[in-house]
Amino acid sequence: MKVNMFSRVVVAFVVSGLLLIGASTPGNAQENTDKQQRKQQRKAEQQQSEQQRAAQKQTNKQQRQQQPQAAQQQQQNQQQTQAAQKQANKQQRQQQAQAEQQNQQSQQQTQAAQKQANRQQRQQQAQAEQQNQQSQQQSQGAQKQANRQQRQQQQQTQAAQTQAAQTQAAQTQVARQQRPTQERQQQLVERQQQRETQYRQQLGQQQRFEQQRTAQLQQQRRMAQYRYQQQYWSRLQQIRLQNVRNYSRDRNQYFYAASNYRYSRGGSYYETNQYGANLLRQAVNYGYEQGFRSGQADRQDRWQSGYQDSYAYQDANYGYSGYYVDQSDYNYYFREGFRRGYEDGFDSRSQYGSYSNGKYSILGAVLSVILNLESVR
Predict the structure, then answer these.
(1) Number of Cβ atoms within 10 Å of the Cβ of 65
(2) C-alpha count within 13 angstroms, C-beta hemisphere, residue 236
(3) In the list 56, 170, 348, 362, which could disulfide-bond 288, CB 3.0-4.6 Å?
(4) Mean pLDDT across the chain, nearest whole number?
(5) What is this structure's pTM?
C-alpha cells in the first residue's frame, strides 16, 4: 500500500510538471506534448501496475510464510492440549485409585469397629446376665433373711404382747390395790380444775402475742421462720382439740390411777401417775421437734442463733391443754427439749435426736437424763 501511494504521488508530480512545461511551450508543440504525456502516463500506469503486482507477490509470499507457522502453532497447541488431557486423565485415574483405596480402608475400619462393638456388646450382655444372676441370688438371700427376721420379730412381738398383757394385768391389779383414797381423788379433781382455769385464762394472752409475733417476723423479712410459725399455730390448734377428746375419754381413769412415778425439778420432787409421765415425755419430744424446725428456719433465713427468741420456746405450751400436770412443769420440760432440738436444727446435725417417718424425736438416752423419772411402786 505504501508503494502504490508513493507511485501515485510521483505520477501526479510528473504530470503537474509536464502541464506546467506544456503551458509554457508554444502551441505547435502541444500535440507532441500530449503524446509525450500519454506515453508517460502509460509508463507510469505500467510502473504502478508492476509495483502492485510486486506488492501482491510480497503479500502472497508473506501469507505462504505465515500459513506454516500457524499450522505449526496449531499443531503445537493440539499437542499441548493432548498432553494436558493425558495428564488430567492420569491424575483422575490416580485419584480414583486413591479413593478406592481409602474406601476399602474405611470399609475395613468400619468392619473392625463393628466387630469390636459386637464383641463388647456380647461381653456386656454376659456381664449383665452375670450381675442379674448375682442380684437374683442376693435378692433371694435377702428375702430369705428378711422372712427369717420377720418370723423372729413376729415371735418377739407375740412374746412382748403376751408379757405386756401380763404386765398390764399385774399393774391393773396393783392399781386397784393402790387406788388413791377418796380424799386424794378430790384433791386431784380440784387441782385439775385449777389447771384448766389457769390455762383458759392464758389463751387470750397467747393469741395477742401471736399477732404481735407475726407482724414482727414480716417486718424482719424472716420468711422461713414466719412459715414455721404459721405451721406451729395451725398444728397447735389441732393438738388442743385432740387433747380434749382424749381427756374426755380418760379422765375417770386418770383420777383413779395411782401415783407410781416421781421426778425432780428445781430441787423438789413431784409424783404423778402414768398419764402425767406420758405427758412429760411428750413435752420433751414436742420440744425437740419444734426446736429443730425453728433452728432450721433461722438457718435458712441466715438469722443469728437464738432459741430463746423463738415464740415456741417462749410459749412452751405446744401439746399442753391444762391436763394431768402443772403448766410450769410442762413448760420446763418442753423448753429442755426445744433447746437441744434448736441446736441440732440450726447446726444441721443429729446430736440429741433423730428423724424417722417424717418426725423429729429426741434420743431415748437424752430423754431419760432430762426427765429422770423414777418408779415408786
Answers:
(1) 9
(2) 20
(3) 362
(4) 80
(5) 0.52
